[in-house]
Every structure is written in structure tokens, then in C-alpha cells.
Write a structure and sequence with these properties.
With 175 residues, this protein is α+β, with helices and mostly antiparallel strands. The protein has a single domain, classed as Nucleotidyltransferase, domain 5 (2-Layer Sandwich). Strands 1-2 form a two-stranded antiparallel sheet. The protein has a two-stranded parallel sheet with strand order 3-4.
Length: 175
């Protein structure tokens, strides 16, 4: 860090700030709209294998009785059935894939993804500052999730199909 530049007539003292990057974290978040419950984890990466393990955990641990799980996802390149096949043996990947019904939000329309809205809430209420380590971030997220899930606030989704046809008309085929 440099020494501050001194005060001069008409010029305040100038101090240079050096940004120190502690690293980045990837946030995996799922939300159940009818109950408002969510599950969140912070991780170091977001590879196909990381996403596949997240999906496996969702299907086998968090929703083991669910015959079919409907996912609304953004278009990130790791968010697809092919990631399951890149991570697991074909038989296991197929078992997982058969339980999923995936719907992708249009590009640049994250406001249509309830998980993105919940992520924004998490960022504003819990991780709204620099956190020195991934372990500490994970602990703080766990506390936030417990509190959030105890509230069990149902999500009242307002966006209807008719609204989508008007606001997203460029995405619909022209007949």
C-alpha cells in the first residue's frame, strides 16, 4: 500500500485502497415455493460434477419420496441432464434424470426464477459483506436457512401465463 498523498491547497488527502481478494464462493440454492422452505450450500466451484451432486442430494436425501421433481433453472451450461451422465454411471444417471422435469427460464429473465429471488434475499440479509472464509460463510448460511425455514412463508407467485405472453412475446414463435 502506498503512502497517502498529502493535503494541498484545494486538494484533500488522497489514500489509495488496495483490494484484497479472499476468493469466491458458489451458492447452490433450491426453494420449495408451496412451503417457502429452502436449502442452501456454499461451495468452492460450480462444475458439472458439483451440480450433479447437488441434484443427487436433492433427489435422494431431501426429496426421496418424490416421484418427480420439477426444477426451474437458469441456462448455465452445467444445468442439464448431460451433467448427470458426465458424473455418474449411466444407470444411476438415468435413475436421477427420470425423476426430473426441467424448465429453463429465458436468458436475461432471472426475475422469473424464484430461486434467484430467494438468492437475492439471502445476499441482502446474510452475505451482504465480505466473509473471510468459506467455512464461516457456510455457518452463517446455515443459521439463516434454519431461521428462514422456521418461518415457512409460502411464496405467492404473481406472474401468469398471460403476462408471459405479453412481456416475453419475442420468445414465443410467430404463427
Amino acid at each position: 500500500m502506498r503512502d497517502p498523498l498529502p493535503v494541498e491547497p484545494g486538494q484533500p488527502e488522497r489514500i489509495e485502497h488496495e483490494y484484497v481478494r479472499n476468493g469466491v464462493a458458489q451458492i447452490f440454492l433450491e426453494v420449495e415455493p408451496l412451503t417457502g422452505r429452502c436449502h442452501v450450500e456454499a461451495a468452492e466451484r460450480r462444475t458439472r460434477q458439483d451440480w450433479s451432486r447437488w441434484i443427487e442430494g436433492m433427489l435422494e436425501r431431501r426429496y426421496p419420496e418424490g416421484e418427480r421433481v420439477v426444477l426451474v433453472l437458469d441456462n448455465l451450461n452445467t444445468h442439464g441432464i448431460e451433467s448427470l451422465y458426465a458424473t455418474y454411471e449411466p444407470r444411476h444417471a438415468r435413475q436421477l434424470a427420470e425423476r426430473l422435469e426441467i424448465h429453463y427460464t429465458p436468458k436475461h429473465e432471472s426475475r422469473l426464477n424464484i430461486a434467484e429471488i430467494e438468492l437475492s434475499t439471502l445476499c441482502g440479509q446474510c452475505i451482504d459483506r465480505r466473509i473471510p472464509s468459506l467455512a464461516r460463510m457456510q455457518r452463517e448460511i446455515e443459521v439463516w436457512v434454519v431461521d428462514w425455514n422456521q418461518r415457512q412463508t409460502e411464496i405467492h407467485w404473481q406472474f401468469k401465463t398471460e403476462d408471459a405472453r405479453i412481456k416475453l412475446k419475442s420468445l414465443y414463435p410467430h404463427l
